[in-house]
Amino acid sequence: MSIKKIQEIKEYMPHRYPFLFIDRVLEFEAGKSILALKNVSVNEPHFNGHFPERPIMPGVLMIEALAQAAGLLIFYTNNTRADEKTNWYFLAGVDNARFKRVVDPGDQLKLHVEVAKQKRDLWVFNVKATVDDELACSAELLLAKGVLK
C-alpha cells in the first residue's frame, strides 16, 4: 500500500480542522491493520488550556486520534467514504485504556490499529499510540455504524 497523504485522507474522513487528527497513513492492510501518523503541534487549540505552562496532549484526544485511524481502516477496507448522512462510524466503546507517557508538542504520535473482531457493522480494535517507539496509550475500541438524522 502506498502512503496516504492528507488530501486523500480528507476524501474518506468527515473530520476537519481542528478535529482531524490524522496527518498521514504510513501503511495499512485491508481488514487487518493501519499505521497512521499524527504530528502534534503547539498551535493546536487545546494547548491553550491543557496546560498553558506545560502543554500536553489530552488523553481523550489520543483516544480520538486512534478512533479516527480505526474508522479510516474501515473505510479503506470497505472501499467506501463517509457521506453526508448514511456512512458514518461512531466510537461506541473504550475499554482498558491506559496512558503511559506524556505527549508533548513537537512529538510524532504513531497510531497503531489492529482489527480484533468484526461482525457486520460492529468493529473491535486493539490500538496503541507510540512516540519514538515508546508506548503513550493503549486501549480496546469499539466502532459502530450509525446514521445521522
Polypeptide structure, described:
With 149 residues, the protein is an alpha+beta fold. It has one domain (6-146): Hotdog Thioesterase (Thiol Ester Dehydrase, Chain A, Roll), CATH 3.10.129.10. Helices cover 18% and strands 40% of the residues. The chain contains 2 helices and 6 strands. Strands 1-2-4-5-6-3 form a 6-stranded antiparallel β-sheet, with helices on one face. The radius of gyration is 15 Å and the shape is globular. The termini are far apart. The mean pLDDT is 94.
Give the helix proportion (percent range). Answer: 10-25%
Major sheet: 6 strands, antiparallel
Tally of contiguous helical segments: 2
Average the pLDDT over all residues and give the rounded result: 94
Q: Biggest sheet: strands side by side, in what order?
A: 1-2-4-5-6-3
CATH fold type: Thiol Ester Dehydrase, Chain A
- Return residue spans where pLDDT drops below 50 for at least 5 consecutive residues: none
The CATH C-level name is Alpha Beta
SSE order:
HEEHEEEE
CATH superfamily: Hotdog Thioesterase
Q: Strand portion, in percent?
A: 35-45%
The CATH architecture comes to Roll
What is the domain tally?
A: 1
* Helical/strand content category: alpha+beta
